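Please, structure for the following, as tokens.
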Amino acid sequence: MQEAYLNAETKTHVERYADHRRVVFTTDRHDIASLCDSIEVVLGDFPRDLLPSLPNLIWFQQFGTGVEWLRSEPRCVAAPFILTSCSDDHYAVVADHAFALLLACTRNIPQYVNAQSNTEWAPPTTLDSPRLSQLNGKTLLMVGLGSIGKEIAKRARAFGLKTNGVKRDTQRQIAGISNLFSLRDLSSAVKQADIVIACLPDTPNTNKVFDDSIFKEMRSSAIFINVGRGYTVNETALCNALKSQRIAAAAIDVTKQEPLAKDSELWKCPNLLITPHVAGHHNQVLKLWRDVALENLERFSRGVPLRNTVNKQLGY
């Protein structure tokens, strides 16, 4: 945590709810390693590879949302400690970013930015330009209906979009979602969509779920957006879909490898907008992470349910 957010008030709050535990504020790996046998609670950034070395760990409050690191630390999945994230403070800004990407695609913004940099006035040659469209009246498929997916669906109504959804449990209806599909019915769901927005976690069940077979089922006018995890998309299949014009455009905030390699085929893929995994970033994010950790510490000391408890077996 940046020192600006680890102020005297924060330290006092932690010590107040530590339940007589010794409190150590450090990010030094050597210091952490020397304390492994006695650590019971961890708040914030922590070396993931050291977690299996904490025999008395009860609870780990991580900063950020993603828990895909569990796949490389299977001992942590089996370990009895509670894992919480900061997922419920990210949904609004990620929804902002998803719509920024979507509007950029529908309103031809990247091309106009390029034209501006070249001091060119470049209006479309016809009023009914295929590069410009409106959201009103279109169908959005929201793939993943956690807090982020629900917020995107909520905002979609304001744009006049009909929203269908894909989620693990299709028995529980969600306000604003017209039709629900399971992940195994994704190919049927994408056929009905003008826009597909993915915000799936990285789990064994979602790995490369967007592959050739799925992109082939999408409408040729469809737009694909990914603000979830890069591993959920077969990147070669996405590039092929764009190069062959099987889909109209795509925008991604995440990739399988980050930073994206200089020689990645994604850089030169037509009609693809890339942002560098910034959907969850904003100027108050560290403060929000701190506040989630402090609230959960207070809940922990009172013995009440914690916010953002992760199912380690499911991976989210």
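The two ends are 23 Å apart (CA to CA). The chain has two domains: 3-89+282-302, 91-274.
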